[in-house]
Amino acid sequence: MRFSLASPLFLLGLFTINLIHTADAQIGICYGMMGNNLPPANEVINLYKANNIKRMRLYDPNQAALNALRNSGIELILGVPNSDLQTLATNSDNARQWVQRNVLNFWPSVKIKYIAVGNEVSPVGGSSWLAQYVLPATQNIYQAIRAQGLHDQIKVSTAIDMTLIGNSFPPSKGSFRNDVRSYLDPFIGYLVYACAPLLVNVYPYLAMLVTRAIYLFLMLFSLHRVLWYKMVQMGTKTCLMLCWIQCMQP
């Protein structure tokens, strides 16, 4: 069967619809660690649970965070750092070891749902030299996951940023930039094979700063989505917690 890549954003939109559980609210927060004087991982996980946050993204396989996630019930997007792409792409044994160390050693007590192989790699610009490694690294990780029979439970993809999208409004006319198609089209072919979604880092607030012509409900992906924030106390620190709530109708 041949697949047309003429409208890849529409194709990926179908993947997204099929993967979303529409019956319940979905809340997720990225667990970033670029800073100092950070709270211990177990305190962070307790904060997630106390606020009924059931989804998390880790940008790298931090072992303390993964251990703290055991039996928490929190679903996880686990990141492969860009610095690991070359070694994972050029040696499948390295990929198998990565999966053993960071996935199998924690599964199933840690509910890993997605593995994001690389973050915001672009074939143009400062990270362009890494682009050649994204697809083979993803395929090697996928094959290591598949060898364990987990490819239906754990989807392997990558995360791109919005600069690779040439036209995003209205969504029905979405398309990638022509100068990145040679990078993205083969990756989309892999996604079709693996039945996995393309992960996109979306920053709606920044888009709203540029133009007010974009309808808020489109930026939130649904008429039934709400952006909320609250101040939470963690030890002696007060933190701003920003959450996406998805309340989609069944």
UniProtKB/TrEMBL annotation:
EC number per UniProt: 3.2.1.39
Coiled-coil annotated residue ranges, if any: none
Catalytic activity reported: Hydrolysis of (1->3)-beta-D-glucosidic linkages in (1->3)-beta-D-glucans
Keywords from the UniProt entry: Glycosidase, Hydrolase, Membrane, Signal, Transmembrane, Transmembrane helix
Transmembrane segments: 202-223
Signal peptide region: 1-25
Any one GO MF annotation of this record: glucan endo-1,3-beta-D-glucosidase activity
A Pfam family hit: Glyco_hydro_17
GO biological process: one example: carbohydrate metabolic process
Entry similarity comment: Belongs to the glycosyl hydrolase 17 family.
Protein name according to UniProt: glucan endo-1,3-beta-D-glucosidase
Species: Medicago truncatula
